[in-house]
Amino acid sequence: MGSLLYGNAGIEITFEDRALTHLQIVITAKLRRRESFLFSWTNSVDRGSGRSVIWLDPSSTLFYRYSGNRVPTINRDWIEELTRSANSAGGLFFTPEPGTQS
User: Which of 5, 19, 48, 61 is buried deepest, with most CB atoms within 10 A?
Assistant: First the structure.
């Protein structure tokens, strides 16, 4: 299980390493183009369920921490799906990998 650490407030968001890698690709592409956007996800039951949202902009402090040391293969369909979401008015909404039950 990897983590995305956000800002100086120490917000830690956990995702499986594979999901975190795909999010890193999409988030980095947006921020490289100096685009700001919302990022939202559904909280796990142990985190109280519900939904969380953060605002990301090029000045955001992000740290990606992976539990494993191998970079997973990239699912281009998932990248495209997440990118479409990130480019929408509602911003990036994390969705599980296409074809999985997660």
Answer: 19
